[in-house]
Write a structure and sequence with these properties.
Number of strands: 28
Domain Purple acid phosphatase N-terminal: 28-120
Strand order of the largest sheet: 15-16-17-20-24-21-25
Shape: globular
EC number: 3.1.3.2
Number of helices: 10
Domain Purple acid phosphatase C-terminal: 363-425
Domain Calcineurin-like phosphoesterase: 131-338
Bound molecules: 2-acetamido-2-deoxy-beta-D-glucopyranose, fe (ii) ion
Family: Belongs to the metallophosphoesterase superfamily. Purple acid phosphatase family.
Radius of gyration: 23 Å
Distance between the termini: 81 Å
Largest sheet: 7 strands, mixed
Length: 439
């Protein structure tokens, strides 16, 4: 051995004075990143099955690999299944990042390191034009859009990904192993750009514990509701599920509502709305849809839209709150289809004008994009579109969004079934934002 070592010229490398465990249960996996809503920062999250330190080694692209180091903490997540499997979820916040610079990193500990990944620190000005991939309802089986998203993400097509609920189908299954498998599948996109989420109905097991423990969204609600700023946009993510899983606490509806109200009021302060004019919401179950299943938006009055009167006290819905606060765009999923609506409030269409419905619209615009692909396959539509439905597609796919500047926002729908063809696109143009824009 000594001679081989000399032969390879390796002996001059100082051997670290640690007796390393073979990286097996201590091997990092399921690496993903998120923006903590603190400027110049990024959170790196991963999983091990044994307790280890939580370390990220990194540096700017082109610099000496791993010259910088940050440490974080891990929490034990015990899955609710019969095996009570234990995962160590590690979180490290990188701060003081240089906006617009690419960083190379790996994460883990002396007991095992991940592959090498890279990300670009977000530009912190309000004058840039962030680009997003947006979708919901992606499973570990049949995630049809994933390969296209992998390539596009890795070549830098997106600055962030918005996954609007329903992961893995379902993360808790097989004692959480389906969650592990899914989080490993999305590493190919989620380790490269902030992967921002909200909960869906498929996360409900054990009070959403797989969702709350595996993701690391901003704020202190265990990723259930939060907001963040990017470029000229303020993005508000919330849980539609608080309206459905009352056993986990009716109070959550009210807590979230009060938080949404305060957050939207803050975002509407003139100095804030002036610099970040776009307010975009994301929540899983839509207020409107024209699908042919038995969901809230098809057969019943949507709880999300008008609230519930069978709780005590009655729980307020969100349509009016969003309207009064001048929310520009509402992104939804849950239906495994794509549907674009004309500007709408209270079932009435409020086009900007007959020729240009999305130029200075007089009500929020809704997009439902839940067709990324999962084992439940497609949903269908009722034969006749409603008067408020502008375009519908049952193709698998996802949405691209770019917030160009203070007045222009671009949306397009990609069909994976048609090999990446763009099957819909709109410009949403607003010279005025806020409730005053509706007048
Ligand atoms: C790693 O975790 C397993 C349980 O998953 C445990 O039996 C084992 O003792 C742990 N090993 C170390 C070195 O901590
Ligand atoms: C951020 O974006 C703005 C607008 O595109 C650009 O002028 C600026 O140079 C960018 N900042 C960095 C650090 O890349
Ligand atoms: C469910 O989780 C939420 C968020 O942690 C918590 O506020 C709530 O009390 C939990 N509900 C139950 C019934 O444990
Ligand atoms: C309660 O809400 C339902 C819709 O969810 C509605 O049909 C019903 O009329 C409401 N009842 C009262 C008393 O407001
Ligand atoms: C809104 O605009 C679209 C497209 O021009 C049109 O088809 C629809 O009828 C308009 N709706 C109303 C209520 O004006
Ligand atoms: C915003 O972007 C649109 C589309 O590129 C462009 O036509 C418009 O002039 C831009 N507005 C400003 C103020 O830069
Ligand atoms: Fe769903």
């Amino acid at each position: 051995m000594a001679s081989l070592c000399t032969l390879l010229g390796l002996c001059c490398l100082a051997a670290p004075l640690v007796l390393a465990l073979p990286p097996f249960k201590s091997q990092p996996e399921q690496v993903h990143i998120s923006y903590p809503a603190a400027p110049y920062s990024m959170v790196i999250t991963w999983t091990t099955f044994n307790e280890t330190e939580s370390v990220v080694e990194y540096n700017v692209w082109g610099g000496k690999l791993f010259d910088l180091m940050a440490k974080g903490t891990s929490t034990i997540f015990e899955d609710g299944g019969s095996e009570k499997r234990k995962l160590y979820v590690h979180r490290v916040t990188l701060s003081g990042l240089r906006p617009g610079s690419a960083y190379v990193y790996h994460c883990g500990s002396e007991d095992g390191w991940s592959d090498i990944f890279y990300f670009t620190a977000l530009n912190e000005t309000t004058s840039w034009s962030p680009r997003f991939a947006v979708f919901g309802d992606m499973g570990n089986e049949n995630p049809q859009s994933l390969s296209r998203l992998q390539k596009e993400t890795q070549v830098g097509t997106y600055d962030a990904i918005l996954h609007i609920g329903d992961f893995a189908y379902d993360m808790d299954e097989d004692n959480g192993r389906i969650g592990d498998e899914f989080m490993s599948q999305i590493q190919s996109i989620a380790a490269y750009v902030p992967y921002m989420t909200c909960p869906g109905n498929h996360e409900s097991a054990y009070n959403f514990s797989n969702y709350r423990n595996r993701f690391s969204m901003p704020g202190d609600t265990e990723s259930l509701w939060y907001s963040w700023n990017i470029g000229p946009a303020h993005i508000v993510s919330f849980s539609t599920e608080v309206y459905f899983f009352l056993d986990y606490g009716v109070d959550l509806i009210f807590k979230q509502y009060e938080w949404l109200k305060r957050d939207l009021e803050e975002a509407n302060k003139p100095e804030n709305r002036k610099t970040r004019p776009w307010i975009i919401t994301m929540g899983h179950r839509p207020m409107y849809c024209s699908n042919d299943d038995k969901d809230d938006c098809t057969q019943f009055e949507s709880y999300i839209r008008i609230g519930r009167n069978d709780t005590s006290p009655p729980a307020p819905g969100l349509e009016k709150l969003f309207f009064l606060n001048g929310v520009d765009l509402e992104l939804w999923a849950h239906e495994h289809t794509y549907e674009r609506l004309w500007p709408i409030y209270g079932y009435k269409v409020f086009n900007g004008s007959a020729d240009e419905p999305y130029v200075n619209p007089k009500a929020p615009v809704h997009i439902i994009t839940g067709s990324a692909g999962c084992r439940e396959k497609h949903d269908g539509f009722i034969p006749e579109p409603r008067a408020w439905s502008a375009l519908r597609s049952t193709d698998y796919g996802y949405t691209r969004m770019q917030v160009l500047n203070h007045t222009h926002l671009y949306l397009e729908q990609v069909s994976d079934d048609q090999y990446g063809k763009v099957i819909d696109s709109i410009w949403l143009v607003k010279e005025k934002h806020g409730a005053a824009a509706w007048l």
